[in-house]
């Protein structure tokens, strides 16, 4: 959730930035159900292997 200020600060320092996100739940007010930390953990666990592979692949190519 702090990506924008971090990228802005890095940009001011002249750093290159790559942003990658894993959306783990819908934003507040999008669904009729309340936000749930359980949902975040379940989604993160479900995509963990693919997300890790993606990050490792990107790091290798940098």
Describe this structure in words.
- The chain has 62 residues and is mainly alpha-helical.
- The chain has a domain of 42 residues.
- The chain is 56% helix and 0% strand.
- The model has no long low-confidence stretch (mean pLDDT 88).
Question: Tags for this entry?
Answer:
about 60 residues, mainly alpha, flat
Q: What structural category arises from helix and sheet content?
A: mainly alpha
Helix content: 55-70%
Quick one: how many beta strands?
A: 0
Kindly report the average pLDDT value. 88
Q: Roughly what fraction of the amino acids lie in strands?
A: under 5%
Please work out how many helical segments DSSP would assign. 2
- Low-confidence segments, ≥5 residues, pLDDT <50? none
Concise account of the structure shown:
By secondary structure, the chain is an all-alpha fold. It contains 2 helices and no strands.
List the helices and strands and how they pair.
Blueprint: H1 3-12, H2 37-61
């Amino acid at each position: 959730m702090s990506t924008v200020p971090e990228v802005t600060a890095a940009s001011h320092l002249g750093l290159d930035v790559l942003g990658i996100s894993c959306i783990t739940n819908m934003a507040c007010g999008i669904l009729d159900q309340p936000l749930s930390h359980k949902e975040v953990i379940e989604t993160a666990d479900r995509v963990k292997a693919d997300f890790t592979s993606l990050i490792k692949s990107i790091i290798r190519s940098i």
